[in-house]
Amino acid sequence: MPVFTDQVIYNEASMQAEVVSVGSELLLGQIVDTNSAVIARHLAAIGLDLYYKTTVGDNLARLAAVLRLALERSQVVITTGGIGPTADDITREAVAVATERELQFSESLMAQIDAFFRARGFKLSPSNRRQAFTPRGAIAVENPLGTAPAFIVEVAERCVITLPGVPREMEHLLVARVLPYLRERYGLKGEIRLRVLKVVGLGESRIGELLADLMEKGLNPTVGTLAHLGQVDVRIAAKGTDAEAARRLIEPVEAVVRARLGDLIFGADADTLEGVISARVQRLGIRVAVAEFGSAGVVAERLSAGLGQGFAGGVILGDPAGATRLGGDLEGGASPEAKARLLAEAVRGWQGVQVGAATVFEGDPGSEPPVTVVGLAVAFHESLESREYRFGGDLPSMKIRTATLALDLLRRTLERVA
Amino acid sequence: MPVFTDQVIYNEASMQAEVVSVGSELLLGQIVDTNSAVIARHLAAIGLDLYYKTTVGDNLARLAAVLRLALERSQVVITTGGIGPTADDITREAVAVATERELQFSESLMAQIDAFFRARGFKLSPSNRRQAFTPRGAIAVENPLGTAPAFIVEVAERCVITLPGVPREMEHLLVARVLPYLRERYGLKGEIRLRVLKVVGLGESRIGELLADLMEKGLNPTVGTLAHLGQVDVRIAAKGTDAEAARRLIEPVEAVVRARLGDLIFGADADTLEGVISARVQRLGIRVAVAEFGSAGVVAERLSAGLGQGFAGGVILGDPAGATRLGGDLEGGASPEAKARLLAEAVRGWQGVQVGAATVFEGDPGSEPPVTVVGLAVAFHESLESREYRFGGDLPSMKIRTATLALDLLRRTLERVA
């Protein structure tokens, strides 16, 4: 099973944490639990390992039993969900049972909840009073983003940290309150820093071969890859005594990766292809038009969302005849790539802008299993860049892959020509 | 916390099951676990409750401990993942440890794995030999879709069922082998049937009011709602002694729901708006074109994927001037709805087809918090249907909502006019 190599670092930590997600809707898969992954990443950054994640329905006895077990095997137990105002929100009660304390009404929590409602002009419902109860001796964690107060119960050297299930509130409280608390209480000093280099144009296995020496187990930093459709992230994770030390460990490794992968790397960390293209389009004061035959608007959608005014418009062809309405003629192209070249120039002219991009999908009738041939082209100034790919697999994946490769061809063309 | 009302039925069951998902990549949130939800639904259909879901990394000791605990509290334990050929696939070993058996090499499993590779022209790697080991006395479950053989270990009245992590393989084995095994072994007779009615054009809370009497707790069938962006599913779940009995319980309730919601219901179960539209478009022998100003291709993408040849093409406008290239002029429209009406007729003419659909987004500068006004229109024969909505929230959600509402307007127009 493919395991991301960051875990090598996670496993070095000595302290152990676990997450308990509460809610029948999570158990039944009606809502996907994104909180655990967010918690895992934040805990890793302070050197805490996440070892288990348990999901339990809204049942007091079962949740209390799970919490008791969690406290036996982990120093830090974090719960998410089940602290709303209704009767099936039973996390408060379950933590009280598992830590053998009574629930206690807190006037100051009640005042906070009351203030939250007043500020928004809402009427406090009697059931919100439930939320002002926490296990005796709990450390209240004020929640400025919602009505559900979070709290921490310390049990000897261990603790149960109870957070809301709403992802935005959960992450805010985790970062603003819980991480500082954990650092302080457990004297956690290690820092993990992550640098992500984003690559288009080379498969994950080929990148793995090129970086094999950096990806060996036990190194610090670790280097790992994570494949998306059409894009691969190279993740460099370093553990240092502080953030600056971790950063210094990353620098030389990043330099090696960049030397080997060159301009296949389009950006780092939060960079997106759209962002990189948008910056260049704005600087040049140009606009981009796109025509798609087969990819049905996925390129246009990404450009529209990412380029703002730099996106002039797009045309989605339902059949080859659509090209004639743009003043083009796909009959002149012998291959999908040749057709994409005609289409890129046609849509640029039709829209009256500086840059035209195009995609053309065509089945290859001779191949078994079925293959789709995808032609991509970008017309800019005198330059007409193009590529051709052969894809198997399902159409939705093919479209996502095509959008990424088309945007990357656009990025390269703008970088080369301008 | 909002809980889907199906669970009322789930809780009536007497037998208890739990899922153990294996894989560090699941724990770290690099892959989202969809298997548990699929298992929950299939188990519910034979009257088995899912009470816990635990995720564990690729660690033998921790996984074995979790499995031991699971066997203490649940009759049926289902594992997914960790049975591949590599060294970090440790589920086989962990099940053996937890059930106190040795691993045993199976010649017949090895022959199956070998045959799978031969049939595909792949070379068997020595590590695949690992996959022919199962705990002594295990019932082998042949996996025709992959190389990872599944198996069942019976422990007195309980059992551990070990399935692959690949969702397609997992669900196939679950349905084809595991459910019949569970029915047979535990004499499970209850059947749950689910009927989903799909609604566009009314919010979840309003539907909840209209169906309040049907949604009370403790009824059989239960009625619940599940909101998507722009669409609400009304789910009717009945438990009967067999499938036919469950179906008979659903019928009168479905009739009541249909009487109250009328043509807001566009279909049931696996129906999609695209499918309903496609059937009508094919029967009428017409084609649809679309122009989008603001929604950036989301309507075109759904029509393209759903209508095949019935989708003639689409135009995505980057600015209002784009309309002139279609022979239209948005200046003539006083509102987004009026502009959408002009655009729907323009794109229909430009494409030379029978049906034109259009979307127009416009900010309302006077509103705080910001609101986007969305105009939708469909031109077909002499008919020109249109709607206007005011949306808050983020652009991606707005686009999804718009696509659903535009498709629904198209469906209604085709039904009314044709």
Explain the overall architecture:
2 copies of one chain form a homodimer. With 418 residues, the first copy, chain A, is an alpha/beta fold. The first copy, chain A, has 3 domains: 6-186, Molybdenum Cofactor Biosythetic Enzyme, Chain A; 191-268, Alpha-Beta Plaits (2-Layer Sandwich), CATH 3.30.70.2860; 273-417, Maf protein, CATH 3.90.950. Chain A is 39% helix and 27% strand. Chain A contains 13 helices and 17 strands. In chain A, the strands form 4 sheets. The first copy, chain A, has a 6-stranded mixed beta sheet with strand order 2-1-3-8-7-6, with helices on both faces. In chain A, strands 14-13-15-16-17 form a 5-stranded mixed beta sheet, sandwiched between helices. The first copy, chain A, is elongated, with a radius of gyration of 27 Å. The model of chain A is unreliable at 1-13 (pLDDT under 50). At the A-B interface, helix 1, helix 2, helix 3, strand 2 and helix 4 of A face helix 1, helix 2, helix 3, strand 2 and helix 4 of B. Strand 2 (49-56) of chain A pairs antiparallel with strand 2 (49-56) of chain B, so a sheet runs across the interface.
Strand content of chain A: 25-35%
State the separation between the terminal residues of chain A, measured CA to CA: 44 Å
Sequence stretches where pLDDT stays below 50 over 5 or more residues of chain A: 1-13
Q: What is the count of β-strands of chain A?
A: 17
> What is the mean predicted local confidence, pLDDT of chain A?
89
User: What is the number of independent domains of chain A?
Assistant: 3
**Strand arrangement across the biggest beta sheet of chain A:** 2-1-3-8-7-6
Give me the oligomer status.
homodimer
Shape assignment of chain A: elongated
Query: What is the top-level CATH class of the largest domain in chain A?
Result: Alpha Beta
Note the main sheet of chain A.
Answer: 6 strands, mixed
What pair of chains forms the biggest interface? A-B, 70 and 69 residues
The CATH homologous superfamily of the largest domain in chain A is named MoaB/Mog-like domain
Helix count from the secondary structure assignment of chain A: 13
What is the helical fraction of chain A, as a range of percent?
A: 25-40%
CATH architecture of the largest domain in chain A: 3-Layer(aba) Sandwich
**What gyration radius of chain A follows from the Cα positions, in whole Å?**
27 Å
| CATH fold-level label of the largest domain in chain A | Molybdenum Cofactor Biosythetic Enzyme, Chain A
Q: What structural category characterises the helix and strand content of chain A?
A: alpha/beta
Order of helices and strands of chain A: HEHHEHEHEHEEEEHEHEEHEHEHEHEEEH
